[in-house]
Structure formats: C-alpha cells, structure tokens
Write a structure and sequence with these properties.
The complex is a heterodimer of chains A (about 230) and B (about 775). Chain A has about 230 residues and is an alpha/beta fold. Chain A is built from 5 helices and 11 strands. Classes of the chains: A alpha/beta (about 230), B alpha+beta (about 775).
C-alpha cells in the first residue's frame, strides 16, 4: 500500500452522475474520498477505486464502451490485476465488463423502461473486498436505477461464475431487468473487483435512502485496507 | 487513445446568393417580405419599418417575428401579468425575494447565505407533435434557465396533463413524454421529485407538458442576463447550431436561397442530455472562477433572443460575427442560424482578460466555445455575415418593447349554466356497500390511481439529497449537509375547478400547492406559475386567463408568497375547443432541518388520526363527480386563505416540535384518497369513525379546502390538541392506525391488499407494454 490508508478514489468521467454520492458514502464510512479525473492516467496513490453510476460519454455506442478507453483506466486495470479493490456501480459495472475485468455484459432491461426502485438483494459471497461486513445470505435493500441493467453471459460463463462462487448479489423479490439467473452483481476470481447494477451509495443515510444497507460496501473495503 | 468529442468547428461557408444586407434593404424599400407567413400582423410589420426607418432585412424580420411572437413577447398576457408585481406581498413578508420576474428565473433567499432559484415552464405543443423530444427538451430548457442564474440545478418536477387515459392517442403521447422526461433528466443526473399526472378529455388534442427545475447557489453567485462593459467578449458555447427548431422561419430561407438548401426544417428540437450535463459542469466551474459578466441560455428564438436580450438589458450595444457560429449543418442561412433552437447552448459575456481561462475550462469539459462578438459602445445590436451587415437594430425594440395587446375578454355565455349544474343533485352512494364500491372506483380511476408506473421511470436518488419524493405531498431536497437546511416544492393545478370558476380555480391551485409544502413541514416562501390556456383571440379563453391572473395575484398577496417568475402558454386548443383553463402553481418552501420533515406514510400502528379543518358538502368539480358520473358543474370548493395560513402554521409547528408522525393534505378525492394513500405507503390499516353531524359520503368524498389528515403519536396528543385549540383550528379525532384494512366503522371495510391492487394496477394495465406485463 502506498499513501495513507483508506484513500478511496472515485473516477469522474464526462457524464458520471453518482460520483459525488460515492464520495459521500466513502466519507460516511470513515474513508477519505479522492477525486479522480478521467483524462489523468494517475490514481493519486489511492488504495481502492469506485467507478460510479451515470451515463459516461452519454452511453453512446454502448454503455461504458468509450469510458474504458479513458487514460485513467490504464493504471486502474493494471492495479486491479494486482489486487487493488475496485467497485463498479451501475455504469461503473458496465465499464468493468467492457474492460474485461469482469465477464459478461449488461443489456437493455427486458421491459424496455428505465426503472428506479428500492431493490432487495441477497449477498451470496462475503469474502470479497467489498462485502466482508455482510453475513452470508443476508438480504439488503438498496436503490436500483437503470435502463440497461440486464446481466447476460453465455451459459458456460454463467455456470463457471456459479461454480466459482463469483455471483456476489442476486435479486430477490422480482428480477427488475431480466438479468440471467437473477444476477445483480459479480466479482473477479480474486474477489477484489466487484461490479453490480444496484446503488449501495444511495443507501447510506436514513434521511435520503431506503436503508443504510449500502454502507457495508465501504466499511468492508476500509477494513480490508487496514488489515492489508 | 483519448476519447474526445472535440474537433475543429465547422463554420458557415461564404454566401452563395444575394445577401439581404442592411444596405440592400435600405435601397430596396418596395421588396416583398413574407411577414404574414412569419406570423406578424400588418401593423406589427409597419411598426418594424417605423423603428428602423427602412424595411427590415430578412434577418431582422426573422428576429422581430420570433421575438414578437406570443411565446416570446407575452403580448397578450403582459397586461394581466403585471398584477403579480403590483400586488406582490409587501414587507416584511417578501424580503426573501432577491430576483423577481423578468430574469431567466426568480431567486429567493432561504437563509444561511443560500439562494434558491426555481421556475416552471411549458413545452406543450412540441410534446404533442413529438412526445419524446418535446418533453426531453422541455427539461433541458428549464434546467438551462436555472443554470443561467448561477445556480446548480438540484431537482426537477413535471406537471403533466393528457387526454383520456384509455384513448389510443394517449398511448402514443404518454409513454413518449414519460420516456423523454426520464431519458433526459436521468441522463442529466437530476432527481425527479414530483409533479402531477392528470387525464381529461379536454387535453386529448393538446396535452400539457410542464417542467419545473430548482437550483441552489450562494448569494454572491447570482448571475444576470446582461451585456455590459465595452470590449467584453460574447462567447457562444455548448452544442453546435443545427437546423432544428426553426419551423416557420424556413419561409425566409427558401426566399433567400432559392436554389439550395432544404426548404423545410424540423420544428421540434432534438435534445442531447450528455451535452447538457457537460454544459452544466463546465458552466459551474466557470462561475466558481468568476469568469462571466453576464450570461443567458439559448432557448426559444435561439441566438435572436440571447443576443437581443443580453444587449437590451446591459449598457452599450453588441456586435456579432454570425459566420463564426459553429454549425452542424453548413447549409444554414443566416436567418436560420439566428432562429435555430438547437439545444444545449449558452451565451456568456466575458472580460477580455478572462477569455483564455474561460476557453480552457470549456476545453476541459469537451465543450465547444467560440468568441462570436463583443460589447460595443452605442446602443445598437449589429450582426455581420462575412463582413456584411445584416442586422442593425435597437435591441430593446426586439427584446423588451414588443407589441402589447389589450385583448377583449368576456365571461362566456355558458358559464352561468355550468355553475348552475350543481353536483349536489347527483345520485350518491348511501349504503356501506355502495360507499365501498365508490371508494374502489375512485382509487382505481386513472386520475386518482398510483402514478408509480410513471415515476419509477425517473431517478429520484441521484445527488443523494432527496429527502422526500413522489408520492409524498411535496418533494424535499437537502441543501446543506452540515446544517440540514432544505427546500420543499409542490406543483398543483385543477383545471376542473378553474373551468367552473377561473378566479377561484387559480387560488385553489395555489392553496393546494401551499398546503402540500406546509404538510411536509416546510414554510412556503414563493411561487412560480405556468398558465396554460386557450386562444387569447377567443374572448372566453381570455376572460379565463384574466380571471385566473387576478385570482392568483390576489391570493399570493394574502398568503405572502410572491410570484417570482413562470411562463404563459396560450393557444392550447383543438379547433375551437380550448382546454380547461389550467393554471399550474409551484410553491417553494424552506425547512431549517430536513430531519424534521413530515412524510405521508402511516408507519406505526397506534398512531392517532386527526382531521384538521372543516368539512362541508363540496362536490363541484370533485374527483367523485368525475369518476361516478362524468360530471363537471356547480362551483368549486370555497377558498379560505386565512384558514390555509392557519393550517400551514399548525403543520409547520407540529413538524418542528415533533408533534406529528405523518401528514397528508386533503385535495382531489377528499379524505378517503388521503387515508388510502397514507395507509398504503405505510403498509398499515386504519379504523375510522365518521364524526357526528356528517354524512359518511360527505366525510369521505367532499373536497373542502384547508384540511389535512395527520397521525399523532399518543404521547403528543394533549400537546397537539392544545396547540390547535389555542390557535383556533378545528380538529377532530377520527380514528387510529390499526390492522391491515381500512375500516370506516358502521359502513365498510376494505383490505389493504384489495385497495393496493385497485390503486396500483390501473396505470400498468393501461400503459405497460406486453413484454413488461409478461416479465412483471
């Protein structure tokens, strides 16, 4: 680890929307949020990175398809492969899939509408960098808001994700977008890179969120950094 | 690879055919000009010639015609709108107003050095022609108005009116409008925190798509639309200028360039929310570094409006090199460039020494920025095209001194008969079983049903400051994370009431919006309005408009809430049939600590239910009369603004002092509507007793004003009662939150499950696609 413990970078792409929310979540969890700019190939010595929600580059071409070529992604890919914790939320998840840090892709919701609702999820894996503060099988409720959140991959990939325990979150109480096997979020093999469509950063205060269930993502990674 | 949207600007090529220059116009006084096709009246055209002392050039004619249109000049409405200023509440009540009517939007002081700007605007006609883009660019336009004041936009709301819910064309218009609002607003990262959805046959050929935006800034950040300081540069930045939104002005294009160029340009603008998001962040960074002397967004009438308004409001004149404007389509004529309503553009006036830094910030955000002119000495707006002068006008005559009409108006001949057709005569449910059926019919009717199928397509969470959003009474946004300072907003308007009595109808719209804000615990401060009416050339519609303005101005004075700005939309009619007069009123309130907000949900069993205010038999224009009988007649509920004020004071004090757990204002649908919504939201039932002296039907369905339903924790009952008693507000304990059904004792019971199915199933059944229903 370089720099002070608990420095968590949040990347702003043109069209990022939930970057300030992600920084607030880091702060409320006790970490130090650090702004990262898409044009800078420099992670400013952060210990972990959040790719926030939004419509990077207007979602033109494909969601996340242009953002993956941003200069900031070069050091990010390298350090993620080296074990640095990375969380992709919504558009950030799409960027991680486009970058091949995670398998599969996100497609248009099966009902063809944008959907914003409070979504129940089951935590299926608790040994990732971002989920250690949850209990195995714990149900949490966080906001979900997307137009292209249907997770798809070929059967073999899906089977291997299941077999390797890399399905981190599954939708409970109704699949909101047609995701295969109710998959809401997955991780890479090492468990340091996690992507999901729902928005934990919008569930960190009772005043503005449906719950504070999302805080656990950020406390998990901060604990990991302390013990690393 | 560095992704970038930037490239070298394409500007217009040299002129191809004879250019109608100022010099040419002066030498050809007899040339035929298409003023009538551009919507000008003969006397208006002659007045332009008089102002200029010659015939206008094509470009000048285009500018005057669009700036003197009803939409831009308010020529029919101005004389009535004046009252909002003249009758504005006196000191000390409106000390909150920092910027009033006339700027891009009004600005209100909310304390702690924060200022809030908010405004509602219409995009009715474009949304009927092209629902998705019409609604999307409606959001884009109002957001730029707010941005231009110096504020960060923080939320949007949408008051919507459609034709009959089951009409085939509503299935075309509504999903498109909703997708457009969502598509643009969601991508912009602004939470959508409320609004209205109303169905009525009268909007079938003329839906209303209004959009409200609210923004927050510090006092020192307020910016105005004016160009001052000789030598200051005029910078156009944002999207390239294209051929969209030109509409009628293509008449001129075809006159000027006969051989080339498309004859017809699209009338509806096309939006790019990604560009707008960049424009917002870029502009806010420019504000932070204090780089602009004046700023204006480009909306209706595009560059014509921005340049003439900036020059008119400032000191000095302006010179613009029109051929430097970056174009999307190089075949555009100068007239078309002046008229284009291409979206996502802003115009700033910048001191020469700050231009480099300004352009640098634009480059950082991949926003194209071009110096197109400068502020000059003298008082003329001069526009050049490849060195030749095509416009030379006094800008005030274009922007601020357009025609003013005193249109004739007259109370319609049918008004008496309409008011005499009293809803009291309608057959009404008597038995418990009939009341139960009427309850389910009401709550499942499209107007009274849950709107979540629509609002779930909008992001209400983004920015992380949404404290309340639909289906709450008002939306609430936290402004300061440290202190908890926040604002609440509601929009309301009941066209049925206004049709029965436009004076009272406008006041009732204000009263409801005011009540909704107070029900959240916020103190109402100021008003914005969107006045949607029929043709000003029809004396009946003009009477409705005049009455509504008078009513609203009078009520604003009494409630101490000034109108800070808004918008008028006339000509809302199909053939000779006008829509119901529909004044939509938005009220902004402030709350010192958002953690004290009052939600609508009955969240805990055992809470005591109190009905505040007086219930009388008032059924004219009611939701029940519409649902049960398709009836509209009689008089709307009586207006009592003193009572509204008292009720608001009680609701605010009770919220601040923790005396109530929930509150829901009573409006269309009456008590049963509010009771059902609060129970469903909280997932708890209620046992309710009909008070002595009231018929169960009137108790449940009357729409008497100045009322609210509140849930009081048992521990606060005495204190709450004492407060209401001391202030003289009638209260009645009508029941308790309990069980999982709504039971009207001695009458009927209905389970929450059945109620929920009725209330929440209607809109999906009408509008959800087949794929959605299969997947759900």
């Amino acid at each position: 680890m370089t720099g002070g413990l608990g420095r968590i970078g949040v990347v702003t792409f043109p069209g990022s929307l939930d970057d300030s929310d992600a920084r607030r979540a880091v702060r409320l969890a006790g970490g130090e949020p650090v702004e990262l700019w898409h044009r800078d190939a420099d992670l400013r010595q952060v210990d972990a990175v959040v790719l926030p929600g939004g419509f990077s580059y207007g979602d033109y071409l494909r969601c996340g398809a242009i953002a993956r070529f941003s200069p900031v992604m070069e050091p990010l890919l390298e350090q993620a492969r080296g074990g640095m914790p990375v969380l992709g939320i919504c558009n950030g998840f799409q960027v991680l899939c486009e970058s091949h840090l995670l398998p599969g892709a996100l497609t248009r919701n099966d009902h063809l509408h944008f959907v914003c609702r409070d979504q129940r999820l089951r935590v299926e894996r608790t040994d990732t960098a971002w989920t250690s503060d949850y209990g195995q099988g714990q149900e949490i409720t966080v906001p979900l808001k997307n137009g292209e959140g249907g997770y798809v991959a070929d059967e073999r990939t899906l089977d291997s994700l299941e077999a390797e325990g890399r399905v981190v979150f599954r939708y409970v109480g109704g699949n909101p977008n047609g995701s295969r096997r109710d998959i809401a979020g997955i991780s890479n093999e090492a468990g340091n890179v996690v992507g999901l469509m729902p928005h934990p950063e919008h569930a960190v205060e009772t005043l503005t969120g449906p719950t504070t269930d999302g805080l656990g993502f950020f406390t998990s990674v901060l604990k990991r950094l302390v013990t690393a | 690879m560095t992704p970038s949207t930037q490239s070298e600007p394409r500007t217009a090529p040299a002129p191809r055919t004879a250019l109608d220059t100022v010099k040419h116009a002066a030498g050809t006084p007899g040339a035929d000009q298409p003023w009538a096709e551009l919507g000008l009246k003969q006397d208006e055209y002659e007045r332009i010639r008089e102002i200029l002392g010659r015939r206008p050039t094509g470009a000048e004619l285009a500018m005057y015609s669009v700036m003197w249109s009803e939409h831009c000049s308010y020529k029919s409405s101005k004389v009535h709108l004046k009252q909002f200023g003249e009758k504005a509440p006196g000191q000390p009540e409106n000390t909150a107003m920092l910027v009033g009517i006339g700027e891009n939007a009004g600005v209100v002081d909310i304390g702690q050095d924060y200022a809030v700007t908010f405004k509602v605007e219409s995009h009715n006609h474009p949304s009927y022609v092209e629902p998705y883009q019409g609604a999307a660019t409606g959001i884009g336009g109002i957001v730029r108005d707010i941005l231009a004041m110096g504020a960060r936009p923080v939320a949007v709301m949408d008051p919507l009116r459609f034709g009959a819910a089951d009409h085939p064309d509503t299935r075309r218009v509504l999903p498109g409008v909703v997708a457009g609002i969502g598509g643009y607003g969601n991508c912009l990262g602004l939470p959508n925190i409320g609004g209205e959805v109303v169905f009525d046959d009268c909007y079938q050929g003329n839906p209303l798509v209004n959009a409200l935006c609210v923004g927050v800034m510090k006092h020192e950040d307020i910016h105005l639309a004016q160009a001052s300081g000789t030598g200051n540069k005029v910078i156009l930045y944002g999207a390239r200028t294209g051929g969209d939104g030109i509409g009628g002005v293509s008449v001129l294009a075809s006159e000027t360039f006969e051989e080339e160029g498309p004859a017809k340009r699209p009338a509806v603008q096309v939006g790019d929310p990604f560009q707008e998001k960049l424009l917002i962040e870029c502009t806010l960074e420019i504000f932070r570094e204090k780089l602009v002397a004046g700023i204006q967004d480009l909306g209706g009438a595009g560059l014509s409006c921005a340049t003439s308004e900036l020059a008119s409001a400032g000191s000095g004149g302006m010179r613009v090199e029109l051929d430097t404007v970056p174009l999307r389509d190089s075949s555009l004529s100068p007239e078309e460039i002046l008229m284009s309503e291409s979206q996502e553009r802003m115009c700033a006036v910048v001191e020469p020494g700050k231009v480099d830094r300004f352009l640098e910030i634009c480059e950082k955000w991949d926003v194209i920025a071009t110096v197109i002119g400068e502020v000059t000495e003298g008082e003329r707006l001069e526009i050049y095209w490849h060195g030749e002068q095509i416009v030379d006008v006094p800008p005030r005559t274009v922007a601020h001194e357009g025609p003013v009409y005193h249109r004739p108006y007259e109370r319609p001949s049918w008004q008496d008969a309409l008011q005499a057709d009293d809803a009291a005569a309608l057959p009404r449910p008597g038995t418990g079983e009939e009341l139960r059926a009427a309850t389910l019919a009401l709550l499942s009717s499209p107007n009274q049903a849950a709107k979540s199928w629509i609002t779930d397509q909008y992001d209400r969470y983004v920015l992380g400051n949404t404290v309340l959003a639909q289906p709450e009474d008002g939306g609430m946004i936290r402004v300061d994370e440290e202190t908890g300072l926040g604002v609440a907003l509601a929009t309301d308007g009941n066209g049925r009431y206004a049709k029965l009595d436009p004076y009272a109808g406008a006041q009732l719209a204000l009263a409801e919006s005011y009540r909704n804000v107070a029900a959240t615990g916020a103190r109402p401060l100021a008003v914005t309005d969107c006045l949607n009416f029929g043709s000003p050339e029809d004396p009946s519609a003009m009477w409705q408009f005049a009455e509504a303005c008078r009513g609203l101005a009078d009520a604003c004075r009494e409630l101490g809430t000034p109108v800070t700005g808004g918008n008028v939309s006339l000509y809302n009619q199909t053939g000779d049939t006008a829509i119901h007069p529909t004044p939509v009123v938005g009220v902004l309130g402030v709350i010192d600590d958002v953690s004290r907000r009052t939600p609508v949900a009955f969240a805990e069993q055992g809470q005591l239910l109190y009905l505040l205010g007086d219930t009388r038999e008032e059924l004219g224009g009611s939701a029940w009369s519409q649902v049960a009988h398709g009836h509209l007649g009689g008089l709307p509920p009586a207006v009592d603004l003193d009572r509204e004020r008292l009720l608001a004071e009680i609701l605010i004090a009770a919220s601040r002092d923790g005396m109530i757990d929930a509150a829901h204002d009573l409006s269309d649908g009456g008590l049963i509507q509010a009771l059902a919504e609060s129970c469903l939201k909280g997932g708890n039932g209620a046992r309710v007793v009909v008070p002595d002296g009231l018929s169960p039907f009137v108790f449940l369905f009357s729409e008497s004003q100045g009322r609210a339903l509140v849930a009081v924790p048992r521990s606060e009952e005495v204190r709450f009662n004492d407060m209401c008693g001391a202030r003289g507000l009638p209260v009645a304990r009508i029941g308790v939150v309990d069980g999982d059904e709504i039971e009207i004792q001695g009458q009927f019971g209905v389970s929450l499950r059945e109620l929920r199915e009725a209330h929440e199933g209607t809109l999906p059944a009408l509008f959800a696609g087949d794929a959605e229903r299969a997947g759900a």
